[in-house]
Amino acid sequence: MNSTDPADELKWLIFELQSSELADEKVHIIGHIPPGHADCLATWSRNYYKIVARYGTLVHCCSFTREEQILEKKIRKQFIFN
Fold first, then answer.
1. What are the residue boundaries of the structural domains of the chain, listed by start?
2. In sequence order, what are the residues at sequence separation of 6 or more whose Cβ sits closer than 8 angstroms to the Cβ of residue 6?
3. Partner residues linked to 31 by β-bridges
4. Distance between CA atoms of 4 and 48, rounded to whole angstroms?
């Protein structure tokens, strides 16, 4: 497996960020497994952080949430408020 960018996600991210930079746009990055998490490849995480640092002036925010965490919050919220 290519741990640097196994699904070409970082390649895609660079393309999108470069396009946004040229268009003078701000971006939000939304993902599933956060970089640095035990389930995320270490090399991929390091490269992701380098990319975000390079385009930091146009990245407004980054948000990562695993679906099971969202479901757990919904269940807790229903339990508490119902």
1. 9-81
2. 41, 44
3. 64
4. 10
Lookup result for tokens 């490269």: 47
> Any idea how long the chain is?
82
Give the tens place of pLDDT for each residue, 49-74: 999 999 999 998 888 876 666 555 55
Instruction: Give the C-alpha separation, 65 to 34, whole Å.
Output: 7
**Residues 24-37: pLDDT tens digits?**
999 999 888 889 88
Tokens representing residue 13 in the block: 């991210």
* Residues 6+ positions from 17 with CB-CB distance below 8 Å: 27, 51, 54, 55, 58, 59
Q: Please, are residues 45 and 36 in contact by the beta-carbon 8 Å criterion?
A: yes
Task: Kindly report whether the global pTM for this prediction surpasses the value 0.70.
Answer: yes
